[in-house]
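SEQUENCE, STRUCTURE TOKENS:
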Amino acid sequence: HAAVAALPGSAHPGRPLVVDLCCGCGALGLAVARRAAVDLHAADADPVATVCAAENLAGVGTVHTGDLFAALPTGLRGRVDVLVANTPYVPSGAIGSMPPEARDHEPRTALDGGRDGLDPARRVAAGAGEWLAPGGALLIETGTAQAPVLAEVFGGHGLVAHIGHDQDRDATWVEGRAAP
């Protein structure tokens, strides 16, 4: 719901451009596309995930395989209205203590966020500026304890950061806005 709320208003010409990075099966992008008319692009480094995402997003969006922004068509640079990313955010040292259904059945690359869990999110925040449209938004799901650190990272890359939390879903994210 936060990504839909971040879409530009009715004064925006055309359909908003949404990118779902680290898309996995495409669930975030699909959720946005079901609630709003958007041009959707989704990308993941895992080719197994992008096959699944392509099936789920058939007729709804375009799926790309590759590492973060390198997977995207260069023509999207500077045009993305909303960029969502469900980057891996489990600290490397905590993966062993995760429930078996997660740690034993998910690819490690979908879980491992590095030393403090924020390495992939830092990479997305660092590259977002050249892809976001003026006033565009970046939203990254993260752990509640990690959110203040990630908000600082966003600020360091020129994004105005806001931390959001949905009590019903027990979900925390950081939203960063590019300058208008």
The mean pLDDT is 90. The CA atoms of residues 125 and 154 lie 6 Å apart.
